[in-house]
Specification:
Elements (H helix, E strand, L loop, with lengths): L3 E5 L4 H12 L3 E5 L8 H10 L5 E4 L21 H24 L4 E8 L20 H19 L4 E8 L8 H8 L14 H8 L10 E4 L7
Parallel strand pairs: 1-2, 1-3, 3-4, 4-5, 5-6
Length: about 230
């Protein structure tokens, strides 16, 4: 029987490649992205009510680190609070909206939420060009994704399992200097290729993996342990 999956962020860097991979593995994928307006509660409610067949939900849109495109001369002390609120709105509030409507509209299922290593450790300033530090809203929201997943895992067990992937840096046309600095902080001495995420997805989708919920799988080449 073909498994049906709702995939959010389906046109993003990871979502696009993941959708292609899942379809090649004969999964039925319902892709949702910006045009789905997942930040609007009414839209999320309508989408989930219309798509009750899928028992699997994968949220990749919460990895968004492109909300604030002004990377230069960033200062947490001087930035507008609205920037911080926007990270929380997209990465946490919208994620919660999608997860809860998924749970409300079916009797059982599995949820996989994407977080980041910066939900586990704080960004290292030495990795970034001067004045181009990660926005503080990014790691704060990534930590919240893990907490949100764990809360749902406890509250809605055993009918629903909820797990999180905390992923490291993915190769995506970064500068050579950044790749060198980042790789020097990784035990495997390199950044991640996007397809290296996919085996963990299959592991979490596997029906034989029936005793796992509230877990955070870290895929970062060892970055977060040194």
């Amino acid at each position: 029987m073909t498994k049906s999956i709702i995939l959010t962020g389906s046109k993003g860097l990871i979502g696009r490649s993941l959708e292609k991979f899942l379809k090649e593995k004969n999964y039925e994928v319902i892709g949702l992205d910006l045009e789905s307006k997942l930040h609007v509660e009414e839209n999320v409610r309508e989408i989930m009510a219309k798509n009750t067949k899928p028992k699997y939900l994968i949220n990749t849109f919460a990895i968004n680190d492109h909300i604030d495109t002004r990377k230069k001369n960033y200062s947490p002390l001087d930035s507008k609070l609205d920037e911080f609120r926007q990270y929380l709105e997209i990465n946490v509030t919208s994620l919660f909206s999608v997860c809860r409507e998924f749970i409300k509209t079916r009797t059982s299922g599995r949820i996989i939420n994407f977080s980041s290593i910066y939900g586990l450790v704080t960004p290292n300033p030495s990795l970034y060009e001067q004045g181009a530090m990660k926005h503080i809203g990014y790691p704060v929201s990534k930590s919240a994704v893990i907490s949100l997943s764990n809360y749902l895992a406890v509250k809605y067990s055993p009918e629903f399992s909820v797990n999180t992937l905390a992923i490291g840096g993915v190769l995506n046309n970064q500068s050579e200097s950044f790749i060198e600095r980042y790789s020097a902080n990784v035990p495997l001495k390199r950044m991640m290729n996007i397809e290296e995420i996919f085996p963990s997805i299959l592991f979490l989708l596997n029906d034989d993996n029936s005793y796992m919920t509230g877990s955070t799988l870290t895929i970062d080449g060892g970055f977060s342990i040194i």
